[in-house]
Amino acid sequence: MQISAIDAAIDRLNGGTYGQCAKCHHPIGNERLAAVPYTPFCIDCAKSFR
How many CB atoms are located within 10 Å of the residue 28 CB? Predict the structure, then answer.
């Protein structure tokens, strides 16, 4: 699971969308990216999945 998430993050980096939330398309905060660099979601959208 984590390897596929990292691969997806690399794809986003290569595609120019790394750091942009996959759900709301707003920027993902730097602190969140530092904590979970492979996350596709901002903290607000991640919370909506709980």
Answer: 22
Residue type, 33: L
DSSP H stretches of helix in the chain: 2-15, 30-35, 43-48
Instruction: Say if CB 9 and CB 37 are below 8 A apart.
Output: yes
pLDDT one-digit tens code per residue, 24-43: 999 999 999 999 999 999 99
Name the pTM for this structure.
0.87
> What are the extents of the domains in the chain?
2-48
Please choose, from the candidates 39, 3, 2, the residue with its C-alpha nearest in 3D space to the C-alpha of residue 21. 39
Was domain 2-48 assigned CATH 1.20.120.910? yes
